[in-house]
Amino acid sequence: MNRLHLPLLAVDGGGTKSLAVLLDQQQQALGEGQAGGCNYQGIGKEAATQSLTACLDKAMKDLAKKKKLSHSEIQLEVECAVFGMAGLDTEQDRQVILEMIDEALKSVKIYPKNLLIENDGFATLLGETEGKPGILVIAGTGSIVYGVNEAGMYARTGGWGHRVGDEGSGYWIGKQAVIAILRAEDGRGPNTSLSESIYSQIGAENGEDLVNWVYSPSYSVKKMAELSQFVYKSYLDGDEVAKTILLKASEELFIAARAVIEQLELKEKAFQIILQGGVLKHQDFVRQTLMDQLYQYVPEAKIDMGKQDPIFGIITKGLSFLQRECE
């Protein structure tokens, strides 16, 4: 058995994909592996653990190939392993995710001396702002806002999952579209063209089929979030119901951002606002409407789309830990 040692393992355990990177002393990636999302709140603990294990296993296979060793005969010690995990919002979440990580690491024979677990959003914020004051607004499958001020104080709003939160997210937009279709069909709301594209997407012919899909085994948070693209298309085609949904989405994201800005007392200061996630990246109307509200509220802020892959924030945290350990 070949026992190797590396300083850092960084893992981005996102809701859409998971990515593991093994780095050497020169901060060069010696192993990388990618797999599906591992937010246990969305896909369950077992499936999330499988995705996490898969990305770690692929990173180990990549390492073995570069070292010209047999993958089955490698054990790896890492000085520090940092996991940025979607779905980490409460202490109960932390316990569940710790169990997932422990199972995945043992499965692929990785043994960390130090283990750091953060919410993936906090790690992304660190990477984008490099420790300077700023807030991160994420609207992808789910939604959440994080912030940090000049004193190093952190705050967050939202991110409570699809059942009770995630306002302004792809899931939330898709859900509002389903509600709007059903309201139109039974005469409680205005007519909308949303039904045409969404029925086609899920193989439905009417509202009853739509309801059956929502309560069927084939339904998932991810599939509901995918409906948001059809809401945007309907908006572009002039559908007023779709426009109302997207306006409400941007308003919800602004309310969440404003709450973090107030908590951190950033309103009168210059700071950075980072926008990230599929909704804000691909749906120009939502992004621009949100930016207009933010500029009106905090004119000194600088707003940018996220430039760094989330893994860089996780690597930054790991390197900072290793540097402190050496001092």
From TrEMBL:
Keyword S-adenosyl-L-methionine: no
Record-level Gene Ontology MF annotations: kinase activity
Domain ATPase BadF/BadG/BcrA/BcrD type: 11-298
Protein's UniProt keywords contain Ion transport: no
Pfam family, one: BcrAD_BadFG
InterPro entries given in the database record: ATPase_BadF (IPR002731), ATPase_NBD (IPR043129), Euk-type_GlcNAc_Kinase (IPR052519)
Keyword terms, alphabetized: Kinase, Transferase
This protein's name: N-acetylglucosamine kinase
Organism of this sequence: Thermoflavimicrobium daqui
Record lineage: Bacteria, Bacillati, Bacillota, Bacilli, Bacillales
